[in-house]
Structures are given as C-alpha cells and as structure tokens.
C-alpha cells in the first residue's frame, strides 16, 4: 500500500532501467539518458520509496527541498519532481526560485527549515547541455548526502520498480517567489540566497571583510557561468563591497557558456591568467557547477587544495568568529594530502581519514568529532552545513587575509615553514576504456601482497593495501576505496577509479611526498621519480597508448 493524500494522483506503470546506482555523489548520466521518459521518474520514486519508512511510512508531515545548479534540464526536472512529490504526499515542498539552489545552499535550507530531505539537481563539475551531463542526488535530514545504506536501498528500488506516482498539474511558475498548491502539497518558491547568506553571516565577521575591500584590496571570483554567480555577486559585491566586476561569468547558463565548470588550473585558465603579473588582484577564487568546490589563488600563486584545508584549520580559531571556540577535530578523504594531519597534531585534535565522497563526513560532523573537513578535489567545508562549500572556503581565506594582513602566498609559505610541505599532485587519465581500466585495477589489487620490498621511484614499497573504512560513529563499513602504496622514504601513491564520470573510466593517481624543507622545492621535480615509477608499474603507455594525464591538479 502506498499512502498518499487526495488530488488526482496517477499511478504510472514503469519498468527498471539498468545502471541507476548512485556513485561518489549521486546518479550522473548523459542528459539525454535522464530525458528518456521515465528515467528521472523511476529514480525519484525509488528515492521516495527508500526513505518513506524514515518518515514513519507517510510524508504527510514532511518538507522536501528541491533545487539545482541551473544546468540544461534543471527546470524540467524540477517540474517533474514537484508533481511527483505532491503525488507522494509531502506536506511542503521548498523550491529555489528559478529552480536554483547551490549544493551547500540546499544543505543550509534543509537544516534551517527542519526539512526531511532534499533533491539536488546537478552533475557538479561535469559540463552541462543536451549532450553533456545531468545528475540528481538525495540529501537526508542532516542536510548531507545520503549514506551508502540509503543509496543502496534506492538502487535496489530502481531494479524492481513497477510504478511511479505523479499527478496532473500544469507547470508551476518558478520565476516568482511565494506559495502555490499542487494537489494537497504547498509548494513554496524561496529566495535561493536567503538561508545561505544567513549561515555565512553567523560565521564570518562581515565588517572586517568589508574593511579588507574598503582598504583597496582586490579580488576576482570566477563563477564559471554556474550556480555561484548570484551568491557571489550578492555576498562579495553586495554585502562586502568588493568592487563591481569582481565576479566573472556571474550568470548561470544552461550550458555554463560551454565551460567545463571545474575550478582547477586547466578549466579556470582565464582566471589563472588574470591572476598573474604584478598588477593582478590580491586574491582569486572560483567555484564549480553546483558551488561546493573552490579554487584558491594568490598573485601568481596556486594553493593546492590539501594545503588550503590545512591553512583553514590552522587559522580558523583566530581568524573566523564562527570557530573561536576552536576545532573539535578535522577530517580528510584518504587520497587528500596529509598536510591537515600535521595541523591537527599541532592543535592537539584528532584527524579522521575517510573514503572519497562527502557523505562519509556526515557522521563525524553530526557527532561533533570533526569541525572542518576536506578533499583533494577542491572541496572544503565545516559543520555549518553537511556539504562541501565553495564560497565558505572563499570567505575563510578572505578572513585569514584580512586578519593576518599577509598575502595568499605568504600565508602558505608561513604554513610550510611551520609544518613542512606535502608536495602533492593528482593525475587524471580520462576517457579510458572501462574494461581495460577495471582489468588494470584488479591486476594491481591481486599483486598487492607481493609488492612490499620491491623497488619503486628510487625507494622501496614499504606496504601496499586497499583502503577500507569503518565509520567510528555507526560502525558501518566500506571496502575497496582505493589502492595505497607507501614507500620507505615516506612518499605515497594512491590509485582509484572515479565514481562520478558518465563515459568510459577515469583513473586518478594521487602522488604525495612530504618534506620539511620550508616548501622551497619544485613540485614537479620532487614528485618526478614517483610519477615515473607509478606510470611504469601500471604500464600505462602499453595499456592505454599514453601515460600523459588529461588533467594535473
Ligand atoms: C570526485 C572527487 C571527490 C568528490 C566527488 C564529488 O569523485 O574525487 O573527492 O567528492 O567528485 O564532487 P570521483 O569518484 O570522481 O573521484 V562534486 O563537486 O562533483 O559533487
Ligand atoms: Co560540485
């Protein structure tokens, strides 16, 4: 029996689609796959069916949040979800105006308004458009991505689904704010900026940040024609008084203006260029499609995401009012550089190591074990929401610059002098033949036990394993989260396949070498032997015709 209330609810017969298992961060496919009749509907219904029990069997008292990053098909998907959520009996639906909500904003809205959960429409840093990518992700009551126990239930549902519920109702005008009824559900179109701005105001000293800009400092923020445009324009230029023109590419476009909305040195090349030279602004930053990633730049200076996390942890208590009580703990995903571990040690707090993907931080944050967390993939965040948060990281950096009076480069060099430096790079090999990549990974995994003692990169493998994780809060376990090679000289290489792509396979090779040398070395040089050693070990050229990565970050 499916409980629902009134209205002309329709039960539409359907049958399963293959491959609707959520990956590292929700379900991502080519947009045209999502546009296939029933594809989105099946997944959404499977989410509702999977979590109805958590609502006591009935959504009649519950609120659902819906919004996305504005990419192609965002609006159509919102309309589908409005009808389905009404047919499934939600009391209230909170929808971002124009269907827009950044990922961290969805998290903020869920938490501040006591919602039951939320659906985020985004394929994040993947390009958008009819021939590019679309995605959907479910977040739970704590505002964070559903844990694997939930996503596996959703997946099981997609494999046996026979019907979905919807109702006949014209499209809701998404341009207006305010409330309308759809069936018996109240649909409230909310200002996408309001909750998020309030959370930022609660953490940061806006007066001090205004002063930073008032005293002549300049910054550039590249929204990459994606969702952070309106947020950044409102916060940086509006509230903090950064000069007009600070925000580049500030209008969200369905195809991101043809950009790849991934804030790294390759895809944010325009910003990188404008941040070089003596006349460049003091501070540069960019966010990804859905606003949860961040790139931090100084004048002619790139801050590696692992260093950014470490620097934020180092300065949070002294520079940001929201953390003046200090940090309870820190957390990073396994492949992320160990820079933050040393800061945690210095602060006398614990640092947790989790599998890749933000969902694994949720329990640590909920339990008060960690306050800040981050990933090497340009993701940083804290317990203020349950998603990584790009603009939050930007405001953290602004606070550090304003309070210390140092430049971006000086802040990082001070950090290296104090803690030493993790020389770090991630090499991505995109669009590999999926079968060949799987075969390579299983080959490496099988050979792990024999690797200890073998020579690699002028050193020797000390130990090699596959990362597994037991959640310290609920005891849930996750295995096969990446291959780790630890060398006798203290360096480390990690290998894993991406779980967010939509075509072929992407191999990620993470390289790290720690040196207590004040950070003066050249990253390419320091990592050179390890890079070559791993490429040879994996026989990349032989397998894939090239051993040159597509993207280095
Ligand atoms: C990548 C990153 C991971 C991140 C995930 C979602 O996953 O490596 O750190 O959490 O993307 O980020 P994968 O499986 O492709 O390596 V986002 O900004 O795309 O939601
Ligand atoms: Co993202």
> Termini separation (Å)?
51 Å
Q: Which structural class is indicated by helix and strand composition?
A: alpha/beta
Instruction: Please give the CATH class of the largest domain.
Output: Alpha Beta
CATH topology of the largest domain, which one?
Answer: Alpha-D-Glucose-1,6-Bisphosphate, Chain A, domain 3
**Shape, please?**
globular
Number of helices: 17
- Rg over C-alpha atoms, rounded to the nearest angstrom: 23 Å
Strand order of the largest sheet: 2-6-5-3-4-9-8
Fill in the keyword field for this structure.
553 residues, alpha/beta, Alpha-D-Glucose-1,6-Bisphosphate, Chain A, domain 3, TATA-Binding Protein, seven-stranded mixed beta sheet, 27 strands, binds alpha-D-glucose-1-phosphate-6-vanadate, binds cobalt (II) ion
Can you tell me about this structure?
This protein is α/β, with parallel strands linked by helices. The chain folds into three domains: 184 residues, 3-Layer(aba) Sandwich (Alpha-D-Glucose-1,6-Bisphosphate, Chain A, domain 3), CATH 3.40.120.10; 224 residues, Alpha-D-Glucose-1,6-Bisphosphate, subunit A, domain 3 (Alpha-D-Glucose-1,6-Bisphosphate, Chain A, domain 3); 132 residues, Alpha-D-phosphohexomutase, C-terminal domain (TATA-Binding Protein), CATH 3.30.310. It is 33% helix and 25% strand. It has 17 helices and 27 strands. The strands form six sheets. A seven-stranded mixed sheet has the order 2-6-5-3-4-9-8, with helices on both faces. Strands 20-21-24-25-26-19-27 form a seven-stranded antiparallel sheet. Strands 11-10-12-13-14 form a five-stranded mixed sheet. Strand 12 and strand 13 form a beta hairpin. Helix 7 crosses helix 13 and helix 10 crosses helix 13. The termini are far apart. It binds alpha-D-glucose-1-phosphate-6-vanadate and cobalt (II) ion. Alpha-D-glucose-1-phosphate-6-vanadate binds next to loops.
